[in-house]
Amino acid sequence: MGFYNSPRIITDNIEFSVDAANVKSWSGTSLAPAGTPYGYSACGSPTRGAPNPYTQIDRIDYTNDTATALLKGNVIEPRQTVSSATANNTHGYVAGGQHPQTSAINRTDFANDTATAVAKGPLTITRRGHGGVGNNSYGYFGGGNDGSDYVSSVDRVDFSNDSPTAVVKGPLSTNQRAMGATGNASYGYWGGGYNPPAISTMSRLDYSSDTDTAVAKGPLSAAKYNLSATGNGDYGYWGGGSIWTTGNTIVHRLDYSSDTTACVVKGPLAISTNKLAATGNTSYGYFMGGDTNPAPTYSIVQRIDYSNDTATSSPKGPLSAATRYQSGFSSQANSLGVAEVSLWKDMTGKGHNATVEGATYQGGNNGVWNFDGTNDYISLDATTDIQAQAVDWTWECWFYVDAGASSYDYLFAYGPPHQIAWYDNQLNAWFNDTDNTSSYDVAFASGSNTVPTGQWTHGVISRIGSAWKMYINGVEKASASASFTVANSSTAPKIGSYDGSQYFLDGKIASMRIYKGKGFTASEVLNNFNATRTRFGV
Protein backbone atom coordinates (compact mmCIF):
# COMPACT_ATOMS: atom_id res chain seq x y z
CA MET A 1 0.00 0.00 0.00
CA GLY A 2 1.32 3.43 -0.75
CA PHE A 3 3.16 3.07 -4.06
CA TYR A 4 1.39 4.50 -7.08
CA ASN A 5 2.14 4.46 -10.79
CA SER A 6 1.35 8.16 -10.79
CA PRO A 7 3.03 9.22 -7.56
CA ARG A 8 0.92 10.79 -4.88
CA ILE A 9 2.00 11.67 -1.37
CA ILE A 10 1.47 8.67 0.90
CA THR A 11 -0.96 9.51 3.69
CA ASP A 12 -1.23 6.16 5.50
CA ASN A 13 -0.62 6.65 9.24
CA ILE A 14 0.53 10.22 8.84
CA GLU A 15 0.48 12.10 12.17
CA PHE A 16 2.14 15.38 11.28
CA SER A 17 2.44 17.17 7.94
CA VAL A 18 3.46 20.76 7.26
CA ASP A 19 4.18 22.33 3.90
CA ALA A 20 5.09 25.98 3.34
CA ALA A 21 3.29 25.86 0.01
CA ASN A 22 0.05 25.85 2.00
CA VAL A 23 0.92 28.56 4.53
CA LYS A 24 -1.41 31.10 2.95
CA SER A 25 -4.26 28.72 2.21
CA TRP A 26 -5.76 28.58 5.68
CA SER A 27 -7.27 30.99 8.14
CA GLY A 28 -5.30 31.01 11.33
CA THR A 29 -4.43 33.37 14.14
CA SER A 30 -2.26 36.26 13.06
CA LEU A 31 0.20 37.96 15.32
CA ALA A 32 -0.76 41.37 16.68
CA PRO A 33 0.99 44.34 15.06
CA ALA A 34 4.49 44.82 16.35
CA GLY A 35 6.29 48.11 16.67
CA THR A 36 4.31 51.31 17.16
CA PRO A 37 1.17 52.56 15.34
CA TYR A 38 2.86 55.55 13.74
CA GLY A 39 4.19 56.74 10.41
CA TYR A 40 7.01 59.26 10.02
CA SER A 41 7.98 61.93 7.49
CA ALA A 42 11.57 63.13 7.84
CA CYS A 43 13.54 66.09 6.46
CA GLY A 44 12.73 67.75 3.13
CA SER A 45 12.47 71.44 2.27
CA PRO A 46 9.63 73.99 2.25
CA THR A 47 10.01 75.33 -1.30
CA ARG A 48 11.97 74.86 -4.49
CA GLY A 49 15.51 76.14 -4.03
CA ALA A 50 15.10 76.54 -0.27
CA PRO A 51 18.54 77.22 1.23
CA ASN A 52 17.87 75.50 4.56
CA PRO A 53 16.35 72.01 4.44
CA TYR A 54 14.51 70.62 7.44
CA THR A 55 15.85 68.42 10.21
CA GLN A 56 12.34 67.79 11.51
CA ILE A 57 10.52 64.48 11.80
CA ASP A 58 6.72 64.49 11.67
CA ARG A 59 4.74 61.65 13.24
CA ILE A 60 1.33 60.49 11.99
CA ASP A 61 -0.83 58.55 14.43
CA TYR A 62 -2.57 55.75 12.50
CA THR A 63 -5.28 55.57 15.18
CA ASN A 64 -6.11 59.27 14.73
CA ASP A 65 -4.90 60.13 11.25
CA THR A 66 -7.06 63.23 10.78
CA ALA A 67 -5.00 65.08 13.37
CA THR A 68 -2.07 67.32 12.44
CA ALA A 69 1.19 65.39 12.55
CA LEU A 70 3.29 65.96 15.65
CA LEU A 71 6.89 67.15 15.54
CA LYS A 72 9.18 64.50 16.92
CA GLY A 73 12.91 64.22 17.37
CA ASN A 74 14.94 65.46 14.48
CA VAL A 75 17.82 64.24 12.34
CA ILE A 76 21.31 65.53 12.99
CA GLU A 77 21.97 67.25 9.67
CA PRO A 78 19.43 69.24 7.61
CA ARG A 79 18.85 67.45 4.32
CA GLN A 80 16.49 67.02 1.39
CA THR A 81 16.28 64.69 -1.64
CA VAL A 82 16.41 61.99 0.99
CA SER A 83 13.84 59.77 -0.65
CA SER A 84 15.41 56.88 1.21
CA ALA A 85 14.39 55.51 4.58
CA THR A 86 13.54 52.14 6.03
CA ALA A 87 12.77 50.61 9.42
CA ASN A 88 12.43 47.49 11.48
CA ASN A 89 10.08 47.05 14.47
CA THR A 90 12.15 49.24 16.78
CA HIS A 91 14.03 51.87 14.74
CA GLY A 92 13.76 53.98 11.61
CA TYR A 93 16.77 54.76 9.41
CA VAL A 94 17.13 57.90 7.26
CA ALA A 95 20.13 57.73 4.92
CA GLY A 96 21.86 60.06 2.49
CA GLY A 97 20.37 63.24 1.04
CA GLN A 98 21.84 66.57 0.01
CA HIS A 99 22.63 70.17 1.03
CA PRO A 100 25.31 69.08 1.35
CA GLN A 101 25.23 65.60 -0.15
CA THR A 102 25.97 63.00 2.50
CA SER A 103 26.47 59.32 3.27
CA ALA A 104 25.26 59.73 6.85
CA ILE A 105 22.66 57.42 8.38
CA ASN A 106 20.49 58.73 11.22
CA ARG A 107 18.60 56.27 13.43
CA THR A 108 15.35 57.12 15.20
CA ASP A 109 14.29 55.07 18.21
CA PHE A 110 10.52 54.48 18.03
CA ALA A 111 10.37 54.03 21.81
CA ASN A 112 11.84 57.49 22.38
CA ASP A 113 11.00 59.44 19.24
CA THR A 114 11.29 62.86 20.88
CA ALA A 115 15.06 62.47 21.10
CA THR A 116 17.47 63.56 18.38
CA ALA A 117 18.36 60.74 16.00
CA VAL A 118 21.78 59.13 16.45
CA ALA A 119 24.46 58.70 13.79
CA LYS A 120 24.92 55.20 12.37
CA GLY A 121 26.52 53.66 9.30
CA PRO A 122 27.57 55.39 7.09
CA LEU A 123 26.67 54.36 3.53
CA THR A 124 29.60 53.41 1.31
CA ILE A 125 28.97 56.44 -0.94
CA THR A 126 27.05 59.68 -0.76
CA ARG A 127 23.57 59.31 -2.25
CA ARG A 128 20.57 61.44 -3.10
CA GLY A 129 17.34 60.48 -4.82
CA HIS A 130 17.76 56.81 -3.86
CA GLY A 131 15.30 54.26 -2.48
CA GLY A 132 15.22 52.45 0.85
CA VAL A 133 13.62 49.09 1.68
CA GLY A 134 14.25 46.24 4.11
CA ASN A 135 13.02 43.58 6.49
CA ASN A 136 13.49 43.24 10.23
CA SER A 137 17.16 42.25 9.83
CA TYR A 138 18.57 44.50 7.13
CA GLY A 139 17.96 47.80 5.40
CA TYR A 140 18.86 48.28 1.72
CA PHE A 141 19.57 51.67 0.13
CA GLY A 142 19.85 51.49 -3.65
CA GLY A 143 20.31 53.64 -6.71
CA GLY A 144 20.30 57.43 -6.67
CA ASN A 145 23.02 59.91 -7.61
CA ASP A 146 26.47 59.72 -6.02
CA GLY A 147 27.23 63.39 -6.72
CA SER A 148 28.51 62.88 -10.24
CA ASP A 149 26.32 60.22 -11.92
CA TYR A 150 23.33 57.92 -11.54
CA VAL A 151 24.18 54.59 -9.87
CA SER A 152 22.77 51.07 -9.50
CA SER A 153 24.73 50.06 -6.40
CA VAL A 154 23.01 48.92 -3.19
CA ASP A 155 24.21 49.45 0.38
CA ARG A 156 23.06 47.04 3.09
CA VAL A 157 22.83 48.06 6.74
CA ASP A 158 22.81 45.27 9.32
CA PHE A 159 20.34 46.35 12.01
CA SER A 160 22.02 44.12 14.60
CA ASN A 161 25.27 46.06 14.20
CA ASP A 162 24.31 49.34 12.58
CA SER A 163 27.40 51.39 13.45
CA PRO A 164 29.88 50.00 10.87
CA THR A 165 30.00 51.14 7.28
CA ALA A 166 27.28 49.53 5.17
CA VAL A 167 28.30 46.72 2.82
CA VAL A 168 27.79 46.71 -0.94
CA LYS A 169 25.08 44.39 -2.28
CA GLY A 170 23.03 44.04 -5.44
CA PRO A 171 23.28 45.97 -7.75
CA LEU A 172 19.91 47.09 -9.17
CA SER A 173 19.13 46.09 -12.75
CA THR A 174 19.76 49.64 -14.03
CA ASN A 175 21.12 53.01 -12.95
CA GLN A 176 18.24 55.08 -11.64
CA ARG A 177 17.43 57.94 -9.28
CA ALA A 178 14.27 59.57 -7.94
CA MET A 179 12.44 56.25 -7.78
CA GLY A 180 10.01 54.80 -5.26
CA ALA A 181 10.98 51.74 -3.23
CA THR A 182 8.99 49.30 -1.14
CA GLY A 183 8.82 45.55 -0.54
CA ASN A 184 7.74 42.67 1.67
CA ALA A 185 9.58 40.31 4.01
CA SER A 186 11.39 38.56 1.14
CA TYR A 187 12.02 41.10 -1.61
CA GLY A 188 12.69 44.79 -2.16
CA TYR A 189 11.34 46.57 -5.25
CA TRP A 190 12.70 49.81 -6.76
CA GLY A 191 10.29 51.22 -9.36
CA GLY A 192 10.41 54.12 -11.81
CA GLY A 193 12.92 56.93 -11.63
CA TYR A 194 15.06 58.93 -13.99
CA ASN A 195 17.88 57.51 -16.14
CA PRO A 196 17.27 59.85 -18.20
CA PRO A 197 14.49 60.15 -19.35
CA ALA A 198 11.78 58.98 -16.96
CA ILE A 199 11.61 55.17 -16.77
CA SER A 200 9.07 52.52 -15.73
CA THR A 201 11.71 49.91 -14.85
CA MET A 202 11.20 47.76 -11.74
CA SER A 203 14.17 46.10 -10.01
CA ARG A 204 13.59 43.28 -7.50
CA LEU A 205 16.27 42.34 -4.97
CA ASP A 206 15.98 38.93 -3.30
CA TYR A 207 17.06 39.34 0.34
CA SER A 208 18.07 35.67 0.51
CA SER A 209 20.66 36.16 -2.26
CA ASP A 210 21.35 39.86 -2.05
CA THR A 211 24.73 39.77 -3.77
CA ASP A 212 23.03 38.94 -7.07
CA THR A 213 22.03 41.60 -9.55
CA ALA A 214 18.39 42.57 -9.00
CA VAL A 215 16.05 41.23 -11.67
CA ALA A 216 13.68 43.31 -13.77
CA LYS A 217 10.03 42.97 -12.75
CA GLY A 218 6.81 44.88 -13.28
CA PRO A 219 7.14 47.43 -14.85
CA LEU A 220 5.13 50.45 -13.66
CA SER A 221 2.13 51.25 -15.84
CA ALA A 222 3.86 54.47 -16.97
CA ALA A 223 7.33 55.99 -16.85
CA LYS A 224 7.63 58.34 -13.85
CA TYR A 225 10.16 59.82 -11.47
CA ASN A 226 10.03 61.75 -8.19
CA LEU A 227 7.38 59.30 -6.99
CA SER A 228 7.14 57.37 -3.72
CA ALA A 229 6.06 53.88 -2.68
CA THR A 230 4.69 51.85 0.21
CA GLY A 231 2.68 48.65 0.59
CA ASN A 232 1.75 45.62 2.65
CA GLY A 233 2.77 41.97 2.45
CA ASP A 234 0.90 41.34 -0.80
CA TYR A 235 1.08 44.51 -2.88
CA GLY A 236 3.32 47.50 -3.48
CA TYR A 237 1.85 50.92 -4.35
CA TRP A 238 3.73 53.65 -6.24
CA GLY A 239 2.01 57.04 -6.16
CA GLY A 240 2.40 60.54 -7.59
CA GLY A 241 5.57 61.51 -9.39
CA SER A 242 6.33 63.28 -12.64
CA ILE A 243 6.40 62.37 -16.29
CA TRP A 244 8.35 65.57 -16.79
CA THR A 245 7.76 68.60 -14.55
CA THR A 246 4.20 68.40 -13.30
CA GLY A 247 2.93 66.01 -10.69
CA ASN A 248 0.19 63.46 -11.27
CA THR A 249 -2.34 61.45 -9.30
CA ILE A 250 -1.64 57.97 -10.67
CA VAL A 251 -1.21 55.08 -8.23
CA HIS A 252 0.46 51.94 -9.59
CA ARG A 253 -0.12 48.62 -7.81
CA LEU A 254 2.27 45.67 -8.13
CA ASP A 255 1.01 42.23 -7.13
CA TYR A 256 3.97 40.45 -5.52
CA SER A 257 2.53 37.04 -6.39
CA SER A 258 2.72 37.86 -10.12
CA ASP A 259 5.43 40.47 -10.20
CA THR A 260 6.43 39.90 -13.81
CA THR A 261 3.24 41.57 -15.00
CA ALA A 262 2.85 45.31 -15.45
CA CYS A 263 1.44 47.27 -12.54
CA VAL A 264 -2.26 48.10 -12.65
CA VAL A 265 -3.61 51.61 -12.12
CA LYS A 266 -5.33 52.19 -8.78
CA GLY A 267 -6.35 55.20 -6.68
CA PRO A 268 -5.99 57.94 -7.77
CA LEU A 269 -4.49 60.43 -5.34
CA ALA A 270 -6.73 63.42 -4.62
CA ILE A 271 -4.04 65.96 -5.55
CA SER A 272 -1.33 65.79 -8.22
CA THR A 273 1.98 65.61 -6.41
CA ASN A 274 5.59 64.72 -6.95
CA LYS A 275 8.68 64.73 -4.71
CA LEU A 276 6.48 63.22 -1.99
CA ALA A 277 7.07 60.59 0.70
CA ALA A 278 5.08 57.47 1.59
CA THR A 279 4.64 55.02 4.42
CA GLY A 280 1.80 52.97 5.91
CA ASN A 281 0.63 49.92 7.78
CA THR A 282 -1.01 46.69 6.62
CA SER A 283 -4.35 48.43 5.92
CA TYR A 284 -3.49 51.85 4.53
CA GLY A 285 -0.84 53.67 2.55
CA TYR A 286 -0.07 57.32 3.34
CA PHE A 287 1.41 59.63 0.67
CA MET A 288 2.73 62.76 2.35
CA GLY A 289 3.60 66.27 1.22
CA GLY A 290 5.30 66.89 -2.13
CA ASP A 291 4.70 69.67 -4.63
CA THR A 292 3.41 70.48 -8.06
CA ASN A 293 6.46 71.91 -9.76
CA PRO A 294 7.32 74.72 -9.25
CA ALA A 295 4.60 75.45 -6.67
CA PRO A 296 2.86 74.95 -4.35
CA THR A 297 4.43 72.70 -1.73
CA TYR A 298 1.88 70.62 0.20
CA SER A 299 1.36 69.50 3.77
CA ILE A 300 -1.52 67.20 2.82
CA VAL A 301 -1.46 63.50 3.70
CA GLN A 302 -3.32 61.32 1.20
CA ARG A 303 -4.50 57.92 2.44
CA ILE A 304 -5.09 54.90 0.18
CA ASP A 305 -7.32 52.16 1.58
CA TYR A 306 -5.82 48.83 0.47
CA SER A 307 -9.19 47.09 0.80
CA ASN A 308 -10.70 49.48 -1.77
CA ASP A 309 -7.72 50.72 -3.73
CA THR A 310 -9.73 51.91 -6.72
CA ALA A 311 -11.19 54.79 -4.71
CA THR A 312 -9.75 58.29 -4.66
CA SER A 313 -7.44 58.78 -1.71
CA SER A 314 -8.78 60.51 1.41
CA PRO A 315 -7.16 63.68 2.80
CA LYS A 316 -5.62 63.06 6.20
CA GLY A 317 -3.16 64.77 8.52
CA PRO A 318 -1.85 67.29 7.55
CA LEU A 319 1.90 67.36 8.21
CA SER A 320 3.09 70.05 10.59
CA ALA A 321 4.45 72.03 7.63
CA ALA A 322 4.50 71.94 3.85
CA THR A 323 7.46 69.88 2.69
CA ARG A 324 8.96 68.25 -0.41
CA TYR A 325 11.81 65.81 -1.09
CA GLN A 326 11.44 64.15 2.30
CA SER A 327 11.37 60.45 3.30
CA GLY A 328 8.78 58.23 4.97
CA PHE A 329 9.09 55.18 7.23
CA SER A 330 7.21 53.13 9.82
CA SER A 331 7.60 50.02 11.97
CA GLN A 332 4.40 48.70 10.35
CA ALA A 333 5.06 49.45 6.67
CA ASN A 334 5.50 46.64 4.14
CA SER A 335 4.16 44.07 6.66
CA LEU A 336 7.19 44.60 8.92
CA GLY A 337 5.01 44.87 11.95
CA VAL A 338 2.74 41.89 11.39
CA ALA A 339 3.70 38.30 10.77
CA GLU A 340 1.77 36.82 7.89
CA VAL A 341 1.08 33.80 10.02
CA SER A 342 1.86 32.78 13.57
CA LEU A 343 1.35 29.07 13.01
CA TRP A 344 2.52 26.56 10.44
CA LYS A 345 -0.64 24.51 10.20
CA ASP A 346 -0.58 20.74 10.54
CA MET A 347 -2.25 19.55 7.34
CA THR A 348 -3.38 16.26 8.91
CA GLY A 349 -6.10 18.07 10.85
CA LYS A 350 -4.81 16.53 14.09
CA GLY A 351 -3.86 19.89 15.50
CA HIS A 352 -0.08 19.54 15.69
CA ASN A 353 0.36 23.12 14.52
CA ALA A 354 3.82 24.66 14.70
CA THR A 355 4.55 28.13 16.07
CA VAL A 356 6.94 30.16 13.93
CA GLU A 357 9.71 31.73 16.04
CA GLY A 358 11.62 34.10 13.81
CA ALA A 359 11.76 32.05 10.60
CA THR A 360 10.58 34.06 7.59
CA TYR A 361 8.27 32.93 4.84
CA GLN A 362 9.61 33.13 1.27
CA GLY A 363 7.76 32.56 -1.96
CA GLY A 364 10.40 30.55 -3.85
CA ASN A 365 9.77 26.86 -4.62
CA ASN A 366 6.05 27.46 -3.99
CA GLY A 367 6.79 28.54 -0.44
CA VAL A 368 9.56 27.83 2.07
CA TRP A 369 10.58 28.89 5.58
CA ASN A 370 13.98 30.56 5.77
CA PHE A 371 16.14 30.18 8.90
CA ASP A 372 18.95 32.68 9.53
CA GLY A 373 21.30 30.38 11.47
CA THR A 374 21.26 32.71 14.48
CA ASN A 375 17.98 32.50 16.36
CA ASP A 376 15.23 31.28 14.01
CA TYR A 377 13.26 28.12 14.71
CA ILE A 378 9.75 26.65 14.66
CA SER A 379 8.24 25.02 17.75
CA LEU A 380 5.58 22.30 18.22
CA ASP A 381 3.64 21.33 21.30
CA ALA A 382 4.90 18.23 23.10
CA THR A 383 2.88 15.17 22.14
CA THR A 384 3.43 11.42 22.09
CA ASP A 385 1.54 11.25 18.79
CA ILE A 386 4.68 11.91 16.76
CA GLN A 387 7.29 10.30 19.04
CA ALA A 388 9.12 7.24 17.71
CA GLN A 389 8.63 5.00 20.80
CA ALA A 390 8.69 1.27 19.90
CA VAL A 391 6.60 1.34 16.72
CA ASP A 392 7.43 1.65 13.03
CA TRP A 393 8.10 5.30 12.27
CA THR A 394 9.11 7.65 9.43
CA TRP A 395 10.46 11.20 9.35
CA GLU A 396 10.56 12.96 5.96
CA CYS A 397 11.77 16.45 5.03
CA TRP A 398 12.74 18.69 2.10
CA PHE A 399 15.58 20.95 3.29
CA TYR A 400 18.28 23.29 2.01
CA VAL A 401 21.46 24.25 3.86
CA ASP A 402 22.87 27.65 2.90
CA ALA A 403 26.44 27.30 4.12
CA GLY A 404 28.78 24.92 5.82
CA ALA A 405 28.83 24.97 9.60
CA SER A 406 31.38 24.23 12.30
CA SER A 407 28.55 22.98 14.50
CA TYR A 408 25.30 21.21 13.81
CA ASP A 409 22.46 22.63 11.73
CA TYR A 410 19.46 20.95 13.31
CA LEU A 411 16.46 20.04 11.18
CA PHE A 412 14.35 18.36 13.87
CA ALA A 413 14.80 17.57 17.56
CA TYR A 414 12.33 16.10 20.03
CA GLY A 415 14.25 16.37 23.24
CA PRO A 416 17.46 14.37 23.54
CA PRO A 417 15.94 11.03 22.34
CA HIS A 418 15.13 12.21 18.78
CA GLN A 419 17.70 14.27 16.87
CA ILE A 420 18.16 14.84 13.13
CA ALA A 421 20.72 17.34 11.89
CA TRP A 422 23.01 18.31 9.02
CA TYR A 423 26.70 18.28 9.94
CA ASP A 424 29.93 18.04 7.98
CA ASN A 425 28.05 17.73 4.67
CA GLN A 426 26.03 14.78 5.92
CA LEU A 427 22.58 14.02 7.23
CA ASN A 428 22.92 12.68 10.78
CA ALA A 429 20.39 11.07 13.13
CA TRP A 430 20.47 9.88 16.74
CA PHE A 431 17.85 7.97 18.74
CA ASN A 432 18.05 6.85 22.36
CA ASP A 433 16.14 4.35 24.47
CA THR A 434 14.45 4.92 27.79
CA ASP A 435 17.70 5.05 29.74
CA ASN A 436 18.42 8.20 27.72
CA THR A 437 22.18 8.09 28.14
CA SER A 438 24.73 9.78 25.94
CA SER A 439 25.42 6.42 24.30
CA TYR A 440 22.89 6.43 21.48
CA ASP A 441 21.11 3.23 20.51
CA VAL A 442 20.98 4.36 16.88
CA ALA A 443 23.43 6.89 15.51
CA PHE A 444 24.19 7.13 11.85
CA ALA A 445 25.05 9.48 9.02
CA SER A 446 24.59 9.38 5.28
CA GLY A 447 28.13 8.15 4.90
CA SER A 448 30.30 8.82 1.89
CA ASN A 449 27.42 10.30 -0.07
CA THR A 450 27.37 13.87 1.12
CA VAL A 451 24.51 16.32 1.35
CA PRO A 452 26.12 19.48 0.02
CA THR A 453 25.10 23.03 0.73
CA GLY A 454 23.25 25.19 -1.73
CA GLN A 455 20.79 22.62 -3.02
CA TRP A 456 17.46 21.09 -2.08
CA THR A 457 17.62 17.62 -0.53
CA HIS A 458 14.94 15.06 0.33
CA GLY A 459 15.80 13.24 3.55
CA VAL A 460 14.02 10.27 5.14
CA ILE A 461 14.60 8.29 8.37
CA SER A 462 12.57 5.08 8.48
CA ARG A 463 12.14 2.39 11.11
CA ILE A 464 10.54 -0.97 10.36
CA GLY A 465 10.91 -3.28 13.34
CA SER A 466 14.60 -3.36 14.17
CA ALA A 467 15.65 -2.04 10.75
CA TRP A 468 16.58 1.67 10.74
CA LYS A 469 17.41 3.25 7.38
CA MET A 470 18.36 6.66 6.02
CA TYR A 471 17.51 7.78 2.49
CA ILE A 472 18.81 10.76 0.51
CA ASN A 473 16.88 11.77 -2.59
CA GLY A 474 15.12 8.42 -2.76
CA VAL A 475 18.26 6.28 -2.33
CA GLU A 476 19.23 4.30 0.79
CA LYS A 477 22.50 5.65 2.20
CA ALA A 478 22.82 4.22 5.72
CA SER A 479 21.26 1.57 7.94
CA ALA A 480 21.34 0.20 11.47
CA SER A 481 19.75 -2.69 13.33
CA ALA A 482 18.37 -2.17 16.83
CA SER A 483 15.22 -3.17 18.72
CA PHE A 484 14.35 -0.75 21.51
CA THR A 485 11.79 1.75 22.69
CA VAL A 486 12.78 5.32 21.92
CA ALA A 487 12.45 7.45 25.01
CA ASN A 488 9.54 9.85 25.23
CA SER A 489 10.24 13.50 25.83
CA SER A 490 8.21 16.22 27.52
CA THR A 491 10.28 18.88 25.74
CA ALA A 492 8.49 20.68 22.93
CA PRO A 493 10.02 19.54 19.62
CA LYS A 494 11.86 22.08 17.46
CA ILE A 495 12.29 22.52 13.73
CA GLY A 496 15.46 24.37 12.74
CA SER A 497 17.12 24.19 16.15
CA TYR A 498 18.11 21.68 18.82
CA ASP A 499 16.20 23.36 21.66
CA GLY A 500 15.43 26.94 20.60
CA SER A 501 18.73 28.24 21.99
CA GLN A 502 21.50 26.54 19.98
CA TYR A 503 22.41 24.66 16.81
CA PHE A 504 20.26 26.80 14.54
CA LEU A 505 19.72 25.92 10.89
CA ASP A 506 21.19 28.29 8.32
CA GLY A 507 18.97 27.35 5.41
CA LYS A 508 15.41 26.54 4.42
CA ILE A 509 12.73 23.93 5.06
CA ALA A 510 9.79 23.49 2.70
CA SER A 511 7.97 20.49 4.16
CA MET A 512 8.15 17.92 6.93
CA ARG A 513 6.08 14.80 7.66
CA ILE A 514 6.06 12.25 10.47
CA TYR A 515 4.34 8.86 10.17
CA LYS A 516 3.51 6.90 13.34
CA GLY A 517 3.06 3.14 13.00
CA LYS A 518 4.42 3.14 9.44
CA GLY A 519 8.01 2.73 8.40
CA PHE A 520 8.63 3.52 4.73
CA THR A 521 9.95 0.84 2.43
CA ALA A 522 12.46 1.78 -0.25
CA SER A 523 9.71 1.94 -2.87
CA GLU A 524 7.55 4.21 -0.70
CA VAL A 525 10.46 6.56 -0.07
CA LEU A 526 11.06 6.76 -3.81
CA ASN A 527 7.35 7.35 -4.40
CA ASN A 528 7.22 10.40 -2.16
CA PHE A 529 10.49 11.72 -3.57
CA ASN A 530 9.22 11.45 -7.15
CA ALA A 531 5.88 13.01 -6.19
CA THR A 532 7.55 16.22 -4.94
CA ARG A 533 10.96 16.57 -6.61
CA THR A 534 9.90 18.81 -9.53
CA ARG A 535 9.02 21.59 -7.09
CA PHE A 536 12.68 21.75 -6.10
CA GLY A 537 14.31 21.18 -9.45
CA VAL A 538 15.79 17.84 -8.34
How would you sum up this structure in a few lines?
With 538 residues, the protein is mainly beta. The protein has one helix and 40 strands. It has two domains: 214 residues, Sandwich (Jelly Rolls); 298 residues, Neuraminidase.
Descriptive account of the structure:
With 538 residues, this protein is an all-beta fold. It folds into two domains: 214 residues, Jelly Rolls (Sandwich); 298 residues, Kelch-type beta propeller (Neuraminidase). Helix content is 2%, strand content 36%. The protein has one helix and 40 strands. Strands 1, 28, 29, 31, 36, 37, 38 and 40 form an eight-stranded antiparallel β-sheet that branches. About 2% of the residues have low confidence.
Instruction: Tell me, briefly, the overall form.
Output: elongated
Number of domains: 2
Average pLDDT works out at 89
CATH architecture of the largest domain: 6 Propeller
Describe the sheet with the most strands.
8 strands, antiparallel
- Termini gap: 25 Å
CATH class of the largest domain: Mainly Beta
Q: Structural class per helix/strand content?
A: mainly beta
- Write out the CATH superfamily name of the largest domain: Kelch-type beta propeller
Secondary-structure map:
Blueprint: E1 14-19, E2 38-42, E3 57-61, E4 70-72, E5 85-87, E6 91-95, E7 105-109, E8 118-120, E9 131-134, E10 138-142, E11 154-158, E12 167-169, E13 180-183, E14 187-191, E15 202-206, E16 215-217, E17 228-231, E18 235-239, E19 251-255, E20 264-266, E21 277-280, E22 284-288, E23 301-305, E24 314-316, E25 327-330, E26 343-344, E27 354-357, E28 360-362, E29 368-372, E30 377-380, E31 393-401, E32 409-414, E33 418-423, E34 426-431, E35 442-445, E36 456-464, E37 467-472, E38 475-481, E39 494-495, E40 506-516, H1 522-532
Antiparallel strand pairs: 1-40, 2-3, 2-25, 3-4, 5-6, 6-7, 7-8, 9-10, 10-11, 11-12, 13-14, 14-15, 15-16, 17-18, 18-19, 19-20, 21-22, 22-23, 23-24, 26-27, 27-30, 28-29, 29-40, 30-39, 31-36, 31-40, 32-33, 32-39, 33-34, 34-35, 36-37, 37-38
